[in-house]
Amino acid sequence: MIYNINKNIFNNLKYNNMISIKFLLAISAIFTLLFFLGCNKKENSEINKDNNTQSQKNTTQLNEQKKASDNENVQEIIRNKLDSWITEINAKQYNLKKFYADNVLYYKNGNVSSDKIAKDKKKAFEKWTEIKMSVENVNISKENDTKYSCIYDKNFSMENHDPPKSYSGKVKSKLIFEKINNDWLITQESDEKVYSSDKQGYEEQNKNDATENAIQKDVKTQKQNTEFNFLGSWKCKDDFSRTISMTLGPGGYYFSNAGQENYSGTWRRSGNSLDLYDKYNMSSGSVSPYGSKIVVDMNNLGRFTMERK
Length: 309
Description:
This protein is α+β, with helices and mostly antiparallel strands. It has helices at residues 2-90, 114-127, 202-221; strands at residues 100-106, 111-113, 130-144, 147-161, 164-180, 183-200, 232-237, 243-249, 252-257, 261-270, 273-277, 283-290, 293-298, 302-308. A hairpin with a 2-residue loop joins strand 5 and strand 6.
């Protein structure tokens, strides 16, 4: 009987131990599974993190490449604008207003309109027989998304044939381009530094100017010594019924050949007539009384009998 009791106790212990072992094995398996799941999750998290980091790097790189590409495109546009601007100046084209914004910081003149700049360029074209300009060492840089600076060395040469006169040199110049209404326009034009300059023929010009100033001073102070009064506005008609006019003032004259050619200068009295001189103190004609009218004899243009307006 005691043997049977011990056997039952042993069987019960054996059974309970087997249950405990199975339970422990189950718990161990669960923890092992959870451990591997945790490791896998961490690994996946690291992978995702690496992927996100790489994606951000790729996006940043693409954005930088796009910005670099956009910057290169704008620089190319501005360089083409600069070349076109130089070409039209050399060709003495009057339609330069298209390159400028409505208001521009223009050399030492401050803020001026594009109309005034166009007139200033036109005045230079009319003053010089030939204009040649070229650029080198062009540096175009971005100031912001809508503003670029263009700094370059400018070689220029301007010549007149009559009277002989020239002006040439080299300067460091600057243009500012800004994006306005989807176009890149000049908002600033200036010269930053003068490398060299050379003027020829100005000595004679200064001498002529001094002579002209002396004549004008003499004209303004002289008195009318004759009964005939030349001063005032005169007119006549040409063969095509166009009005030719002349204005004689105390300091000089202005002659308009039917709007085709305009001349101005000074006059000096010669007896009862007037001798006319251009701004270079060259004889340009004469004016003589003819009853209540005048006879104007302009060199190379002919003779006109005029009456008062």
